[in-house]
Specification:
With 162 residues, the protein is mainly alpha-helical. 61% of the residues lie in helices and 5% in strands. A two-stranded antiparallel sheet has the order 1-2. It is elongated and about 50 Å long.
């Protein structure tokens, strides 16, 4: 449901907006962990977003056979993808994403962090824009180079607070 909003935000803000996906497999959805694993195996081949989109378009079809079909549709190297998926290579990374979200106050999906500020649930595009505009203004005023801003002003300062 939120994908069109995120796509519109990317159009509006271009290179001033970076989307980073963190996994939060929901316990009451038994196939969410395997789906997360499958998408990370697609990420290995540079096809995370294409695979992600297929998963979200087909949320009622999340069996292993479906995952393989999506890998074919996304033009993945099937041998590499199957090997990765079969060994649950990214399980710990996915669980780390989930634990990190919980530490930061997100106990469900979707949640969005804009320079460390959390928006929970589905939001109108204007809510995102207000927060993004505020954060962009802070970034400009900081005097920190764009390439270093997130690491220096958000990650490092946030780590000091946690």
């Amino acid at each position: 449901q939120i994908a069109p909003t995120l796509q519109e935000l990317k159009k509006i803000y271009g290179d001033n907006l970076r989307l980073v996906f963190k996994h939060y497999p929901l316990q009451f959805r038994s196939r969410s962990m395997p789906a997360a694993s499958a998408s990370m195996c697609a990420h290995e081949q540079g096809k995370f977003w294409a695979y992600h989109d297929l998963l979200f378009e087909n949320q009622s079809k999340l069996e292993d056979a479906n995952f393989l079909e999506y890998a074919q549709t996304a033009s993945l190297d099937l041998t590499k993808w199957q090997s990765c998926y079969g060994e649950s290579k990214y399980k710990e990374a996915i669980l780390t994403d989930q634990r990190t979200a919980a530490i930061l106050g997100s106990l469900g999906a979707p949640a969005f962090f804009i320079n460390g500020r959390c928006l929970k649930g589905f939001q109108q595009i204007e809510i995102f824009q207000d927060l993004i505009d505020t954060e962009l203004e802070k970034a400009k005023k900081s005097g920190t180079a764009k390439a270093q801003y997130y690491q220096n002003e958000i990650v490092m300062k946030g780590s000091q607070r946690i």
